[in-house]
Amino acid sequence: MKHKYRNYYFPVLICIVFCLCIFLVRHVFSVRTQTNASLPVTEVRQSFSFLNTIDFELSELCDGDLNNTAFFQELENRTNIHIDWITSLSNLQIQNRFEQNSDSVPDLIGAGNFSSIYGNISADDALNRGDICDLTELVPKYAPNYYKIIQQKDIKDIAYTDSGRIAAVYSIKQNSQKPWCGLQIRKDWLDELGLEIPVTYDDWETVLTAFKERKGATAPLWISYNAYAQDESLNAGFGVSYDFFQMDGKVFYGPARQGWKDYLTLMNRWYQKGLIDVDYMTGNSIYADSKMIASGTSGAWFGMYTMPSDLSAKDQNIKVIAVSPPKLNEHDTLHIQKRYSISDNMFYISSGCEHPEIVLKWIDYLFSDEGSRFASYGTEGKTYTLDKDQNPVFTDLILHNSDGLTFYQALKNYTLAPGLPSAYIDWKREFQCVPPSSAVMCDVWASTDTSYMLPVSLSFTSEERTRLSQIMANVNSCMYEYTTAFITGIKSFDNYEEYLNTLKKNKIDEAVQIYQNAYDRYLAKHSS
């Protein structure tokens, strides 16, 4: 009798175990990878309006309409979703259409245009007022790939508001990004002159003097138009940021600290000695012009990791290396450096959008395995192929475009352009346009830690935002004007107290307290 029941239950037991194994395997697989969205997103073609201003180069490339790019044409083919792009607010008639609570507010709003419509308020307040859709319940259901990604701790801080809600869809980088720009110097000049790579400010002064006297450089060190927009690279050695920062939990405004005066004193000396461009303040970029480097005008500068490739195309004898920010003393540890966010953009869905669930399905495709590769690399067989390890490698359509497009122009046409919302992007794709020697520059610039920098996810209440906007408009103007005046010698350092008093008059202490309150909230949130 026992033998009979054993023969009956054994196949059933095997079946149960087999089904359980399938369930566990599928569960583990779903945790580790994104699922591919079902395409098309909708059988009936849907259209949504999207306000997102774009840079000049991209606007020129697509004639102001992103639907003219190969990427968005293909995305529409795959998803059956059409986007009516609004890429400029320069037309006053267009701008006037977007009045608060108006039926003409676009369905989707890029982060850079949020305040143009809703004012200087927080995302939580916009949710409370009913201006934008609360996506908290919708995202898990209609954007499962995106939802899975934003559960990672460092991303969750950014993707959720202070009240724990989802107000926007963020563009997420697949890996943390290292600094992609920093100080560079002509290694061929250093070798020719028998000079070591500069480490301290004194070393730098010696090198720049040699560049001026022995190489004829008229602007040995190129600096940006405001002398501090170089991702903290020149002022970090003095222990101050050009913005708000913290030490041991206490917030400070860098340009009101002694270290800022010391930095300006050095810049003034270098300016008087002709070691920096006497007309630096007339520029309009934070990156050096390659023509100034190729012509021998400058031998050190602030630039992107792509700069060496641009220069070698002009003159193969030019050899460039990355250098760490200068220090006061050789063995100092620097704690000031720009922090790069795991996200660089996002968009909101306005409350007037009739089908936010379809928008979420549409954008979730770009967070799936297939969609994120499409956003990062374009179309397989056309813009990329797979190497023996199944890694995407750009084709000549991107790397050596026959229509004369540069690498970045081709990238903006055939993939999701850098900085556009929103997708799960492999930012390392950009390394394919440069040799390995240029890519490792990012490691050199990452040698400085960021322990004094405030979190990129620091958030403010609407009242704080409004007050900061009022205060910092005057403070920033004051800081820029006095910084330029002290460096160029228009103002003597005997007037430095006048500068500090002007900052106080413009309520810098109140601004510091607002930042302190926001940072205290951040610390309390992350200590629990």
Largest sheet: 6 strands, mixed
- From the N-terminal CA to the C-terminal CA, the straight-line distance is 61 Å
pLDDT averaged residue by residue:
90
> What proportion strand?
5-15%
Seen as an oligomer or otherwise, the chain set is: single chain
Low-confidence stretches: 1-6, 21-33
Structure class? alpha/beta
Helix proportion: 40-55%
What is the C-alpha radius of gyration, as a whole number of Å?
27 Å
Query: How would you write the strand order of the largest sheet?
Result: 2-1-3-10-4-13
Record field, number of beta strands: 13
Shape: globular
Helix segment count? 23
Pfam families: SBP_bac_1
Transmembrane segments: 7-29
Protein name: Extracellular solute-binding protein
Keywords: Cell membrane, Lipoprotein, Membrane, Palmitate, Signal, Transmembrane, Transmembrane helix
Can you give a write-up of this model?
This protein is an alpha/beta fold and 528 residues long. Helices cover 44% and strands 11% of the residues. It has 23 helices and 13 strands. It has a six-stranded mixed sheet, with helices on both faces. Strand 11 (384-386) and strand 12 form a beta hairpin. Helix 12 (258-272) packs parallel to helix 21 (462-488) and helix 21 (462-488) packs across helix 23. The termini are far apart. Residues 1-6 and 21-33 have low confidence and may be disordered.
